[in-house]
Specification:
CATH superfamily of the largest domain in chain A: Dihydrodipicolinate Reductase, domain 2
Strand content of chain A: 25-35%
Distance between the termini of chain A: 52 Å
Oligomer: homodimer
Pfam families (chains A, B): ACT, Homoserine_dh, NAD_binding_3
Largest interface: A-B, 58 and 58 residues
Largest sheet of chain A: 12 strands, mixed
Number of strands of chain A: 18
CATH topology of the largest domain in chain A: Dihydrodipicolinate Reductase, domain 2
Catalytic activity (chains A, B): L-homoserine + NADP(+) = L-aspartate 4-semialdehyde + NADPH + H(+); L-homoserine + NAD(+) = L-aspartate 4-semialdehyde + NADH + H(+)
Cofactor (chains A, B): a metal cation
Family (chains A, B): Belongs to the homoserine dehydrogenase family.
Organism (chains A, B): Streptomyces nogalater
Chain lengths: 430, 430
């Protein structure tokens, strides 16, 4: 049973993702209509500058007045692929006020203002979908909030930034240093001219906030996410990782505490065993590992960025939102009922790999071991390497809180015999 | 906003999966209520034999009269985890007639009668969900029919049977033969006393039919699926695979033809390159690789069977179906609008690895090569091994149709110089 009046879609942004959304809406119009139960029509495209030729888009649809477009009142779904906080935020809330549902790919906005946007959607009885905001084409939001709705998620461990995974994979496979690998990523178009958002973990932190919120049915703000970039990772760290049977990945980690009453969310480079499914995620691919009570260990893998993959996620949401409008229903909104405490980084419990430059004389190991013991951090293995008066100690700990480890490191730095802390790396996924 | 009248759930079957569904419904009652927006109540449990103590289930709820239970008229959702065709089929259609929606984990039934069951659900305006029918806990049905609803799926390549993956993984890692690996799988509980459904590919074929139907929006019947078991795979095949940089997996493969007008579905053992993400799927785990126009390559990985994982999938569906009932909507039903031709195995195009036992004399290779050429099958590489009057030829072909390959093999068998065809293995995932 096909309804003939089309659903009207307003597209905000017509860059790499937006143009691909428009293209697929045209080329796959019949499929979309069949899957939705009504045709969808591109009713307007808001851009920053007109005048540029846009393949397959009727120039009459193109406007620079995004606000007027979302206020038209006859728009069924607004697709927001502008990115950034403003004007995206105001446009989305305006869209809800004027009767539209919204599909967004905007991780920064969702991470910062997800709660307010969800509230606006609910007030107006509209949908807010954003599968494309996390890990591009990989279905992740929908599996977490729908497929696992009857389960209890305990941990989400993900490679959610393709740029940094490309760089780390390159360092791992070639022995290159960070700068050299970054230069190659830039040359190949995997890193932007200013790579800060990727390499400093801001992008991954936004995704971690979104994932943690959905996984734990708890509001997790961007400020709640501990963030550490991967610019300090060295070729020496990769050599250490290999000795441990590990590689290094920039991970977004969302965890429920053992007692179940609190959660943490963090982004930082970490060693993971080569046997872990995330270790073999190569190049710019993304993958997210989910651990839950009943399902056990699941992994979702795919391209985490790019015009087509992101458009695929946007269009999947578009179909769902259109179906909802036809049936007069809305999909699942924000679920924050669990309202768990979001604990700071100091409460995170994991293992650590610490490399120390130390004086090459007797008694150093005893001194260092005493410091660990005093801070309640139990040592798993320690390895001494000495050569030409220089010496290093590599300590791998048992599980300890981040606060205890920080205290340990601070005390180690004060020892005369410790010349420097060469690196501290968390060990995950064991 | 919590509705206080509970939604009533009837559970058909209380074995490994059913008892876990009941357990989680009790222990996670508050979470389920919060996520659904109303409490869910276990209103009845149909079993084959009463009298057995069932942990945490009120004996007053247990009945052997499943028909009476689904006919009660006050049941919101029937959860069918009996398996098999009858009485499951009749109970499900009766449930629809009496106003209930249905969540099922029954792959055999869905593969055989999915169309009729979907039609019954639609007639009565009810939901039929069955995430648990394919690959246990791995979200797959929902991603395929919802997340990828705006995309065009071209291929689904999956390890969807844990028993056979355990056996093949064991053969790969230890060099064991099929029987030895099967015995170990049986001893460890990974294989049933009668392993036919698994090792002969019947289980995987049912899943392939379901996956192909959803992926291609086309009805694919169980009879449409080509099926070849893995009982003939030998340790020698694994050695051959290793020489090719491959391993062997039992794959369910659903493909759209190059011209897009037809599809095929098949289950058979195949060599895949070690670099393919499916190659590293170990033990009894399942994984499904999906290739689509816009999203590119996605993979979904997790436990494909077991009480808890299957219960996780069932409960995810239960939450979705309950939400739909509260909002007065139904989820996506069968989508078979594309109505593509389902082509027979002969039309499948892939590469082949063929081992021949041949006479050790001059001219054999020329004869063999002529037969391949006559049938239009182009040879990629050929390797001759001779020793003590015995000789073998290992031929790897370029892409050719299964019909051409079959014709080739038939003609090869007629050659005096060919003593036997030791193995034929398809090569996939390149």
């Amino acid at each position: 049973m096909m309804r003939t009046r089309p659903l009207k879609v307003a597209l905000l942004g017509c860059g790499v993702v937006g143009s691909e959304v428009a293209r697929i809406m045209t080329t796959h119009a019949d499929d979309l209509a069949a899957r939705i139960g009504a045709p969808v029509e591109l009713a307007g495209v808001a851009v920053r500058r007109t005048g540029k030729a846009r393949d397959g888009i009727d120039p009459a649809l193109v406007t620079t007045d995004a606000t007027a477009l979302v206020k038209r009142g006859d728009i069924d779904v607004v697709v927001e692929v502008i990115g950034g906080i403003e004007p995206a935020r105001t446009l989305i809330t305006t869209a809800f006020e004027h009767g539209a549902s919204v599909v967004s790919a905007n991780k920064a906005l969702l991470a910062q203002d997800g709660a307010a946007l969800h509230a606006a959607a609910e007030t107006h009885g509209k949908d807010l979908y954003y599968e494309a905001a996390v890990a591009g084409a990989i279905p992740l939001i929908r599996p977490l909030r729908e497929s696992l709705a009857g389960d209890k998620v305990n941990r989400v461990l993900g490679i959610v930034n393709g740029t940094t995974n490309f760089i780390l994979d390159k360092m791992d496979s070639t022995g290159a240093g960070y700068q050299e690998a970054l230069d190659e990523a830039t040359a190949l178009g995997y890193a932007e001219a200013d790579p800060t958002a990727d390499v400093e973990g801001f992008d991954a932190a936004a995704k971690a906030a979104i994932l943690a919120g959905i996984a734990f049915h708890t509001r997790v703000r961007l400020d709640d996410v501990y963030r550490e970039g991967m610019t300090e990772v060295t070729a020496a760290d990769f050599r250490s990782a290999k000795e441990m049977g590990c590689t290094i990945k920039l991970l977004a980690i969302c965890e429920r505490s053992k007692d179940g009453t609190s959660v943490t969310a963090r982004v930082h480079p970490a060693m993971i065993p080569l046997s872990h499914p995330l270790a073999s995620v190569r190049g710019a691919y993304n993958a997210v590992f989910v651990e839950s009570d009943a399902a056990g260990q699941l992994m979702f893998y795919g391209p985490g960025a790019g015009g087509s993959p992101t458009a695929s996620a946007v269009l999947g949401d578009l179909v769902a939102v259109c179906r909802n409008r036809l049936s007069g229903a809305t999909g699942p909104g924000e679920s924050a009922y669990a309202d768990l405490t979001v604990s700071p980084m100091g409460d995170v419990v994991t293992r650590y790999h610490i490399s120390l430059d130390v004086a090459d004389k007797p008694g150093v190991l005893a001194q260092v071991a005493t410091v660990f013991a005093e801070h309640g951090v139990s040592i798993d293995t320690v390895r001494q390497q000495g050569k030409d008066g220089e010496a290093s100690l590599v300590v791998v700990t048992h599980r300890a809180s981040d606060a205890s480890l920080s205290g340990t490191v601070e005390a180690l730095r004060k020892l005369d015999t410790v010349r420097g802390v060469a690196s501290i790396m968390r060990v995950e996924g064991e």
